Amino acid sequence: METIKIKYFDNEIDKIEKISKGDLIDLRAAETVEMKKGDFRLISLGVGMKLPDGYKANVYPRSSTYKNFGIILANSVGQIDNSYSGDNDCWKFPAIAMRDTVIHKNDRICQFEIQKVQPEIEFVEVEHLDDTDRGGIGSTGRA
Questions:
Q1: How far apart are CA 9 and CA 44, in angstroms?
Q2: 21: confidence class by pLDDT, cuts 50, 70, 90
Q3: What is the dihedral of CA 3, 5, 11, 12, to 10 degrees?
Q4: Of 9, 19, 40, 122, which one's alpha carbon is 20 to 30 angstroms from that of 32?
Q5: What is the distance between the alpha carbons of residues 77 and 24, in angstroms, rounded to a whole number?
Q6: What digits encode the pLDDT tens for the residues 113-136?
């Protein structure tokens, strides 16, 4: 079992609880934010973590985030490297408002998972890959 050190920058948000393997872990807004349609805002999540060596965190919106708050994650996936672990490295959610909205402190707005980082790889240039062509992106299952 891996250990993750966590620092809370805000004592008023609910603490992260241990979960069973395979589930994503919810994160909460650590501030109340009012946004107008088109606004961009880095919303504090009120936590920082020291991930185990060889791991990173990927942050995603919850499936209900857009429906409930009308915000989207500005860069599709928020990747947090193991080295982002200083005493002032508070995790944030880069949000774009698609409508006027209010996000209240302690609202669950995103989730994260821990993944192993990219292994060491080497690229070797070749003339041919495999013998089987699948027809390109978007072609699966089409005749």
A1: 9
A2: low
A3: -50
A4: 19
A5: 14
A6: 999 998 899 999 999 887 777 777
Residues in CB range of 73: below 8 A, 6 or more apart: 59, 60, 61, 93, 94, 95, 96, 110
User: Cα torsion at 66, 7, 75, 52 (round to 10°)?
Assistant: -120
Closest residue by Cα to residue 33 from 47, 25, 24, 43: 43
Instruction: Identify whether the C-beta of residue 79 lies closer than 8 Å to the C-beta of residue 56.
Output: yes
The Cα 24–Cα 114 span in angstroms is 9
Average pLDDT over the chain, rounded to an integer: 91
Indicate the pTM of the whole model: 0.83
Enzyme catalytic residues: 81
98: tokens are 């698609």
